[in-house]
Amino acid sequence: MSTELPLIGDYSTPSTELSGARIGVVTFPGTLDDRDAARAVRAAGAEAVSLWHADTDLQDVDAVVIPGGFSYGDYLRAGAISRFAPMMSKIADAANSDAKLPVLGICNGFQILTESHLLPGSMIKNDHLKFICRDQLLRVENNQTAWTNGFDAGQEITIVLKNQDGQYVADEKTLDELEAENRIAFSYVGWNPNGSRRSIAGVSNKAGNVVGLMPHPEHAIEVGFGPDARGTDGLTFFTSVLSHLVGGKK
Amino acid sequence: MSQEVTKEFNIDTVDNAASTPDVELPWAELGLKDNEFAEIVKILGRRPTAAELAMYSVMWSEHCSYKSTKNHLRQFGQKVTDEMKKDLMVGMGENAGVTDLGDGWAVTFKIESHNSPSYVEPYQGAATGIGGIVRDIISMGARPIAVMDPLRFGAIDHEDSQRVVHGVVSGIGGYGNSLGLPNIGGETVFDPIYQGNPLVNALAVGALRHEDLRLANASGVGNKVVLFGARTGGDGIGGASVLASESFDDTKPSKRPAVQVGDPFAEKVLIECCLELFKASLVEGIQDLGAAGISCATSELASNGEGGMQVELTDVLLRDSTLTPGEILMSESQERMMAVVTPENVEAFEAVMAKWNVEYSWLGEVTDTDRLIITWQGEVIVDVDPKTVAHDGPVYDRPYARPEWQDALQADNFKSSAAGQNLPATGDELKAAVLELMASPNMCDKSWITNQYDRYVGGNTALAAPDDSGVVRIDESTGLGVAIATDANGRYTYLDPYAGAQLALAESYRNVATSGAIPAAVSDCLNYGSPEDPDVMWQLAEGIRGLSDACMELGVPVTGGNVSLYNQTGDKAIHPTPVVATLGKFDDVARRTPSGWREEADGQAIYLIGTTKDELDGSEFANLRGHLGGVPPVVDLAAEKELGAILINASRDGMIDAAHDLSEGGLAAALSEMVLRFGVGARVALDEIKDRDGVDSFTALFSESQARAVVAVPRSEEVRFNDMTSARGVTVARLGIVDAQSGSLEVQGEFTVSVQELREANEGTMKKYFG
């Protein structure tokens, strides 16, 4: 794995490109986990391509990660301003096109995807009203998406949870639909850390190419730099999309 | 009201000041003493203008000028050997010190206080404390990589602690989490002595390539001076409101908020924007705007550079158009930076601002006049030698003397006191004491606080609280990184100000070494009461003398820091609290040692390194019994150095899988915390310590003797470990083994406490008080 990562400035350095796949990582003003997402992409063997919110060129990427952070400070509503970024229109078009560009939204990225109506529901402040950072146990409910095909259905994984506005909400009809259509991608196991409806941690669109979740897979890809349990469950998100791209499991 | 607000001011120009020498100025209300005002008049050869008065008053304040401590702080620069300076790229006096890490990397770090604002307005005070220290790090050309927050609050059960604790913790989280900087540690202490004076210190660390180093100086005549970031508003002006004579407009509010309001999103954008400027080499000098705002930035940039600068103050972008020139000069609005840019780079600079949507305004240029000249619509309102503002402030030799009460205090030792009778002796009593200790406000689990901070962002955090130090990786290809720990014990320092400051250093040095890093540099935040009280001034003088002596002996230079004075309520000063941050170097953070053993360490041998003396005065146990008297544990820096070397070598050679230093709460706390770290039990016996050191079980468990650590040694490494320690002449005792099956901590012949019981005691306290 290429580990050269300039501390200052651009992180889209050439990778080993094991797969030849190019995965875009979008940076908005206030994005925080973009370097981390790029690292995860490279760790999976793909090339990380830096995408700037104000640009309109998707640079022929094969998939896109919208990383976490506090874009525009979350001062209005998390993700509410970022959804209007020129790059988001391009991403939405590509995700809804026949090509079905795989898109993963993590934390603030998930919030941006719901604000963009690429995913249903919304996130409000955690029920305990505090920011929470912890190692989080999740159950993979749907392993048929572009970003989860490397997991077993029902597999329990540990990745990092850290957010202020992580309480997933939607109306009952939408929640019933999500369940009926097997679109709940992940749920919290044990204590529900933010009061999310039906303990939902992440959902997908109908086609399974767009997945959003509050916890952070990119922080569980390297032993010793993630959860205390030292697992690398997060890496499977990124290897899943690579196998999806080469026509492996759906 | 007219839009041409500038016309409404009664602008006090330099010409006006020269021709109206007898105008009364509110210098006393601005905090200047009569001798200080007289000095300003002497320097200028006339009375100052209102704007000049504003500048001098803030720059000559205790906070900005260090006038009470300068003569003492010199020792940090004097007690240094060439060896200590070897890796020092930038020492004290700049925004933050810079230490060479090797491989072309350098690291910069600094700790500062934001005490008083955090008491007045806990959320914003703590938030802007983070903001300020992070901008200091950016100013050096570095990317900030982590923050830490040592906190001291009043009594946990005091009603006001609810306001302060909730506000401070959510302020640190709210601001720091939005910057994408992992919060990797700190400490939290509760003591009624801090009730009206909580200590909110903030540390930031940044990494840079050698060639990216930037300094705060304005060089190159003709270069442009630019202010960028947030607009200038009326926040943080404090005393400037007494300059009412500046304004004809009596409708404007006379009192302005004294505490600044933070905008973390603006700061995050500013960080990225500055790093892009550095990468493209677009700035010649840069300075963040913190205390004293534009006054500080212009005078420091000018006096550190070629000596002259001309600035037009009406070009400053304002949030509040009614601000007077004096208020603009003093405003402490956050998220602002000032830079010096060559004319050729102006266009490229503006392109970076446009990309990040950051507002900026060109204020003026560098001159060769040796004067800082500030105009208001072309009329000169400031004409000063910038050095007289920034560097030549008053210096005081404040009187100090050992307090009369010090002898009586030191004579009142714990074991002779009423509180020190009937100490726990039976197994049941010792077990109850351990549980009481681990549930106490100072020793209880602080994850209620640390779980409100993002410790993962950046993906380089190798250790964070509750481990002994925070460890972050800097270079992914080699694993190069740093460890940082902050420590202080106000009770020790109250009992003996000289030894207490040394003990603070000893503990942070030990913590860094415990995680496996080589201690390399120190930053300190000296929190004390009023320097005008000779008792306090003595504590301060002794603290600085003690710390500088100890730095010399341990071979770690002080690279910067901050002094916070007047932390007192009425006549009652806080305990002297010198918070010491030690930075250690890692060639590869992968070999860092965690503070507890995991299940796979089952059967590993547990050793105590160091000897145990009867040292309970000032201890956490004495504190539980409400006693504070006697003398703190003996400082033995040679032993600390030896212990450090053992812990570092053991980490490098893979001889230990876990290590935890002994400090507050002694062996009882260390063993409990190691068991609790990953929920894995242990079986130990105290007999060897008791026989060898001549102490009883209680003392073996609760004494706070220094230069000690507990380590877990794989069976295959025991011979090597014992060879190393005996070759170095260091005493070790084999306490027992890690027991992954037992689910308990068993102190043989005394008691067994289950991990569950320990956890409930340890985790319940913060939830009980703060929900």
From TrEMBL, chain A:
Q: Which GO terms describe its cellular component?
A: cytoplasm
Instruction: State the pathway, as annotated in the record.
Output: Purine metabolism; IMP biosynthesis via de novo pathway; 5-amino-1-(5-phospho-D-ribosyl)imidazole from N(2)-formyl-N(1)-(5-phospho-D-ribosyl)glycinamide: step 1/2
Query: What's one GO MF term for it?
Result: glutaminase activity
Q: Which keywords belong to this entry?
A: ATP-binding, Cytoplasm, Glutamine amidotransferase, Hydrolase, Ligase, Nucleotide-binding, Purine biosynthesis
Q: Which InterPro entries match?
A: Class_I_gatase-like, PRibForGlyAmidine_synth_PurQ
Q: What is its EC number?
A: 6.3.5.3, 3.5.1.2
Q: How does it assemble?
A: Part of the FGAM synthase complex composed of 1 PurL, 1 PurQ and 2 PurS subunits.
- Please give the NCBIfam families that the UniProt record associates with this protein: FGAM_synth_I (TIGR01737), PRK03619.1 (NF002957)
User: Which HAMAP family would you find in this protein's record?
Assistant: PurQ
Q: What does this gene product do?
A: Part of the phosphoribosylformylglycinamidine synthase complex involved in the purines biosynthetic pathway. Catalyzes the ATP-dependent conversion of formylglycinamide ribonucleotide (FGAR) and glutamine to yield formylglycinamidine ribonucleotide (FGAM) and glutamate. The FGAM synthase complex is composed of three subunits. PurQ produces an ammonia molecule by converting glutamine to glutamate. PurL transfers the ammonia molecule to FGAR to form FGAM in an ATP-dependent manner.
The molecule here is called: Phosphoribosylformylglycinamidine synthase subunit PurQ
Q: What does UniProt list as this organism's lineage? A: Bacteria, Bacillati, Actinomycetota, Actinomycetes, Micrococcales
